[in-house]
Every structure is written in structure tokens, then in C-alpha cells.
Fold this protein.
Amino acid sequence: MAKKFFVTTPIYYVNDIPHVGHAYSTIGADVLARFKRACGLEVFFLTGTDEHGQKVEKAAKEKGFDTPRAFVDSIVPHFKEAWRVLDITYDRFIRTTDEDHKAVAAEFWKRVQAAGYIEKRGYEGWYCMYEEAFHLEKDLVQPGNLCPECGRPVQRMKEENYFFKLTAFKDRLKAFLAANPDLVQPESRRNEVLGSYLAAEDGVQDVSISRSTLKWGIPVPGDPQQVIYVWFDALLNYLTATGWPAVGYKDLWPADVHIIGKEILRFHAVLWPAMLEAAGEQAPKRVFGTGWIVNDGKKMSKSLGNVVDPIDWSNRYGSEVLRYYLLREIPFGLDGSISESGIEGRYNAELANGLGNLLSRGAALCEKNQVVFTAWDGPQDGDGELLAAARSMQRVYLLSMESLAFHDALEAVNELIRAANKYVDERAPWTLAKDKSPEGQRTLAHVLYCVAEAGRLCLVALAPVMPKTADKGLALLGYPSGSVFGERSEAKGAGLDKLLAWGLLPAGTQLTKGEGLFPRREAVKA
């Protein structure tokens, strides 16, 4: 059996309900999963929630829950509802409180301990409860001993814990990254791992992987007075979903890409590969660190009160418009800002006035002149710029989607839309329609075929991002609903990469104007 394409999101911490920062990385993973399915691959898409640790225990008490389990059970449905609204096509929603995950964590611990990479010792250091991480004193923000990640006060912690011997892997990690330059992406994240962590004298230290002062977690095998450190627990969710260590887990493992937030890069690009090697398992093929969504110059977070509710914006603008906007507005891997004026601007300029205008003009002219398309008959004078834009879109789009440069893929689509609208203006089919000679009508049909074909290519390319919109648009071009891609964007015939070739609009297609794909902004306001 061929290995499936395995894509994961972070598992999100459940100390509060989801915001648009969670949605951003999840939408990116969903678009990648849909793209791979649309190209004909079998995909396994994993997301879920991280439910252990001190933050959760503290939040449960503050919010009046009898147990941490009751608290997390109240939060998880909010994540599932957000992903339903955003049409996230995950194959499993994993929870670190799942019984199979607890069993995997215990078994993995035993194997790493048997290999000699876990030992018990005393430790004292500066600990951030919010990031669930220890920090070196030199890295704290002063004055106030503040966490370098979240800016909140850290506390001095002293206890006897179990440690993972991460220092034993420092040189091996350097060599592994050198031999696998695509492991950590984008390049800025790879440079951060190599420079800030692996090259620094004290950048890699042994990691405390248990807690004796905390009860909400998975017990350490053989020492139930301690629980497994939340990160050592959480990272293992990726293995749990494969069925590890049962026969058949390599149908999924190693993961093809972990999509994460940049703030957890060190855990995924340093600690996780070392843990896997200690247990005799392969590292993931790629770790991709997204940037932060910024509001008022600050990372979006519930504690700062600057979050956007993805369900609220989906209700106001449409979930597919939100999907498009987030991936179009912010280069995946960089920080970026979002705003209501921004989403309205993208909607009007690119969707309503761009693709929507192109399709409605073409369909109206086809309907008015009763044009029925024949098969593609080759280029004519005046087609060159449009055909070049179509070829460029296919090349740039496919390369960009593979590299998770979604903004570049969508820009390539918009370049074709602009070229097609320019083609309409230059070829002026409304003027061509006045020539009722057979040659004149053939020219009119050819020009309108080119307009419709450009629209088809754009809709095919947009299918992973705006699946329902693309299906509706393709139906206007004569494709029965669901005939090109399934509900999860699986290819029904030729894969998306093949469908991006010019000239596939079938003969006999007759366009009617129908309902516009993108009504003017006033029609979608709350």
C-alpha cells in the first residue's frame, strides 16, 4: 500500500476558545490537504487539541470547573464548531486525553528510557507557566524576569524530574539539518534553528520531561507521582494518529509536513526529531513555521484582548471569503495584519470585480448571442498574452502550492484574471457580435471560449481554497455539481495539475448568466 500524504496542524491548547490565529494555520493545512486530494493523492489530515498541563489546570480552577477534564470537555466543541464552519476536512480530531494517545505516550517513554536517554535528577530554573517552558536567565526580558516568548513573568521552579538527554543529539541534529535543508521551512525558520538553538553554546540543553507538582497529565510509567511534561506528551499525538507502534503505522509515518506556529518551532525542529531518533523512528519530512497574525502591532491572543472570532467573520463575510483572505493577505510563514477594511478590499477588488466580473461578462455575452462552444481550435491573433498568462499561472501555482506559498499561488490566479479581463476589453466581443457572418461568429465564439476557459482555470485553481465557490462556478461552465472534485476536493477524474492545461473546456458547452458568484459587498454584509 502506498504511503498517504500526512499533514498536521498544531494541536491547540484548550485554555480558551479558538480565534483566527488558530484558524489561519488550520485553513493552510486544509488547503494543502485539499490540493493534494485534488491532484489525486490519498491524504490523512490531523488536527486536535492539547489538553494537559499547568495552564489548563489553572484555567479550570479559575473558571469554576470541578475537574480539568470537565473544563476541556467544554472547550473542545468550540474548536470542532469553528472547523465545521470553516469546512476543515480533517480525518481525525485527536485529543491528548484520548486513551490511545495515553497508551502511546507511555510506550514511547519506555522505549526512550530503555535506550538510555531518560534519567532522573534535580533541577532549578526559570519557568513560564503560559508557554510551559523553561528559559535561561540570560534570555529573560528585564526588568521583571519576563518570558521572552509571551512577555509575562516567569517563576523560579525547583524539583526532581526526569530529563531527556537532548544534548546527546546536538551534533546529530546539525548534521541532519545540513543533509536535509528542506526539513525546516521557510528558510528564515531554518536559520533560526541553526543559529539561535544549535549553534549557540547553551542553545541545546537537556529537557525536563516530567512534573512532580502537577497532577493533570499522563502518569510517568513506573513513577505515578509524576506526570509527563506537556510537550513530551503533546508531540506524540502525531505518532498516535498513525496507530504506532502497531503494524501499518508506516502507511502514514513519517509525516509529510507539520504546520505549526513559529513560537513552537524549537519543540518541533529540535526536541521532536531528537525524541524520534531516541525511539528509533524517522523524523518528519518537513516542519513549516507560520508567522503570527498581528493586530495593533501585537500577536493576536485572547489574553491581550485583540482576537478575531473566525465564526463571527465567517458569518459576516462568508467562510470561503475568509479562507481566501487569510491566505491571500499574509504570506504563509511571515507575520501579517488583518482588518475588516482589508477583507472588504480583497473581496471587492479580486473576487467581485475580478473573477466575478470576468465570468458574468462572459456568460452574459454567451447567453445573449447563443454561443455554443466547439473544441479548442488553436490560438488566434490577439490570444498570445492571455495564453502566456495561463501557462505562467499553471507553473507558478503548482510550485507555490507545493511550497506552501499560498499567497503566490493566489497572486498567479489573479494575474490570469487580470489578463483575461484585459483580453475581454481588447477583443471587445460585444463589437464582434455585430458581425453576423460565419467567420465573425466563429471569431466571437473563439474569444468567448478563451474567456470561459480562463475562468475555468481560475476556478480549478481556487478549488482547494474556495471549494464550494469553485464548484458553483464550474457548474456555470457546464460541469454538473460535484463532477470535478468531491466534497473534500478529491479528484473525480483527471487531477488538478492536469486540469490546469489550456483547452479542456468541453465542446457543446453553452453558458447562461445565472447567479453571480460574488455579489457586491452590500449583499454579504451582516
User: Anything to note?
Assistant: The chain is about 45% helix and 15% strand.
